[in-house]
């Protein structure tokens, strides 16, 4: 088999065989195929696309490039949850404890953030003492004991994805349906859970900016998950403005805690209840998504989800006192306010621009080696549809570098649009695929 022939075949719109895709994935992962040939094939795929069979073959080849996690030692139906990435998306830290409180074992591997999107592992590491790396047996023991454990992804899970994604990131080939699907699902299929709930973001702060693209992505991921024997459900949700009010690591953990206490913003609370309810249903603890939804809501009302969060933090070496005392989190030294230039209503908050502002404040990475300021971030005082007066506070940028915070505030100003007429926020939950 010849790599040049494979590139030309896809360049000319041909359908690659399972064997040709396997040859590429194996050869590139082992370093036998150079970056320039891999880049050429990725660009050909970007422009010519892949059909479902090709996408499934790429996904399984990437899945099989590393270890397949065996979670059979954990009792019950394990349900994983994955978001395709967004701004202010701290739902894992909320839905994990909620689903666990309803009896669903949560054994999850999460990633770090890069660019304007945040990563769950970074958020967890803002908790004093919290360990995101555990030995396999300790990880499983914690799930059996407490019902939940979330750790960072290991390099042995789908190493082909890590290498291919790094190349896509610098060759303009990220936003492709088949490449996104194979990247997400190769890791999910290798992670060992029995069912998968996908939060597919749609809007300005997402890879898929319109509903039709998000629907295609959700349907393809559901089909691939089900084909591999995993019950898979996708929820298409809005990411045209940031989720909740907090953007940034420790700020988002604090908002997650407040949500578990029943004091969270309406949007993050509603989305968390929906996702957790579907997880409870997929895990066999409810007879319908509606019943699962009610069980999830009850876990907030009766405090059992908050108690699972306490056990989760304590089990991984974190200080559970943060649930009552937020001053134990890393603290900022600078706060820069962004105020409204006029009277009116918030018409739009560009999610991607807010994410970039948060990154510039120190809360995110431009490269994988950047050091994050755990206290840096943004708090949004006004959301879409809110009335505002000239000079009134729109948002605040926090950080430990005055120049960075000031620059981020300028970025944030550009994210807001104010109009004379009231705009209703777009529907938060757009569609559910796979129920």
From TrEMBL:
Q: Which GO terms describe its molecular function?
A: pyrimidine-nucleoside phosphorylase activity
**Keyword ATP-binding appears in the UniProt entry:** no
Q: Which domain of life is it from?
A: Bacteria
Q: How does it assemble?
A: Homodimer.
State its role: Catalyzes phosphorolysis of the pyrimidine nucleosides uridine, thymidine and 2'-deoxyuridine with the formation of the corresponding pyrimidine base and ribose-1-phosphate.
User: Which PANTHER family does the entry mention?
Assistant: THYMIDINE PHOSPHORYLASE
Q: What is this protein called?
A: Pyrimidine-nucleoside phosphorylase
Q: Which organism is it from?
A: Anaerovorax odorimutans
From the broadest rank down, the organism's phylogenetic lineage runs: Bacteria, Bacillati, Bacillota, Clostridia, Peptostreptococcales
